[in-house]
Design a protein that fits this description.
By secondary structure, the protein is mainly alpha-helical. It is built from 14 helices and 6 strands. The chain has a two-stranded antiparallel ribbon with strand order 1-2. A two-stranded antiparallel ribbon has the order 3-4. Strands 5-6 form a two-stranded antiparallel ribbon. The mean pLDDT is 86.
Length: 332
């Protein structure tokens, strides 16, 4: 049954997907930044995301703001449980933004700003992955509030998801540079994409198997009959997409590897949805238990129905305007 609560869950889910698609590759470029030669290659890599990177956090704001407004109980539980990684993520994004701007204006300290760009991107990405892992492994809830400790979010599983997300974002970044650049940098990015794809596939397998052991309901949602007839399609589709990804790389395609890498992320998000739906705090609180009053949801939906198309329109326009190749001096 589709009601306002499901609609709002869909809006927040869409914001998360949009953020991963649009901010993942530039965070990945930041993580890999030390691997590029100083000077022309680093300038080209940064110019490839310069027109679009700053607007990508819009989706992060929409997701966080939508969670607070549409699912206040979930917000009240999740925030105290995950203050540390969420604050680290925000500080990392701030550091990345500052470094992005100052490396062009403070040439005397450009090497320092390059390191800050990498550090901010790495911290933000790792913190996002840790947050996801902490949610999946379970939050201690008593009544209607968080009842766990300060370090409950930190575990081998959450560290694994943090590292896995860094690998995934690096893959997106390498595929983006393979699409947007030329010459030695493009060839370097294609080589990195091939290696990162193997690592990511291994991480996906390990995280998927580990997730099944966290909660009995995760296992049942994947393997209970007849659900397994549908859920089995996800790993099969993952293998098919991986094959298509490597085939496009071997044929020296430019756009296709990026699209197939995004498809891998999409399949991972589908798998995540299968594991936790319809919970907003996995295995603890459902979306209906955490939902705001109907009138509040209607009021917010009016605003979202206007703002989301506007955001999509100006984002699409920006990507269309800067659709060509990029060099050290900018797009051409």
């Amino acid at each position: 049954m589709i009601d306002l609560t499901v609609v709002w869950a869909g809006i927040i889910g869409f914001a998360i997907v949009a953020y991963v698609i649009m901010d993942g590759f530039d965070l990945g470029i930041g993580i890999m930044f030390p691997l590029f030669r100083p000077g022309r290659d680093r300038d080209t890599a940064m110019n490839s995301v310069a027109p679009v990177w700053d607007g990508n956090e819009t989706w992060l704001v929409l997701g966080g703001g939508g969670l607070m407004a549409a699912f206040p109980l979930a917000y009240a539980i999740i925030l105290p449980a995950l203050y540390a990684p969420l604050i680290a993520m925000l500080l990392g994004l701030v550091l990345r933004g500052v470094a992005f701007e100052f490396r062009w204006r403070d040439e005397a300290h450009r090497r320092m700003w390059d390191r800050a760009f990498t550090l901010g991107s790495s911290v933000a990405t790792f913190a996002q992955g840790v947050t996801l892992g902490a949610l999946l492994q379970g939050i201690t809830v008593e009544g209607r509030s968080y009842a766990g400790g300060w370090w409950e979010w930190l575990s081998p599983f959450s560290v694994l998801t943090g590292v896995g997300l860094m690998v995934g974002y690096c893959l997106l970044g390498a595929c983006w540079l393979n699409w947007k650049t030329e010459g030695d940098l493009q060839r370097q990015a294609a080589r990195y994409a091939g290696r990162l794809g193997i690592v990511l596939l291994a991480v996906i397998g390990v995280v998927s198997l580990a997730t099944l052991t966290l909660e009995p309901r995760y296992y049942s949602r994947w393997f209970a009959y007849p659900d397994i007839l549908v859920t089995a399609l996800v790993p099969v589709a993952t293998l098919i997409v991986t094959f298509l990804f490597y085939r496009s790389l071997s044929r020296k395609r430019e756009v296709q590897p990026f699209l197939w890498a995004l498809s891998l992320f999409g399949l991972c998000l589908i798998g995540l949805g299968i594991s936790i739906w319809p919970d907003v705090v996995p295995a603890r609180v459902t979306i209906w238990e955490a939902a705001a009053p109907v009138r509040s949801q209607i009021f917010m939906l009016v605003g979202a129905s206007v703002l989301v198309p506007v955001i999509l329109a100006y984002t699409g326009w920006a990507y269309w305007v800067f659709r060509g190749k990029v060099g050290s001096e900018g797009y051409h």
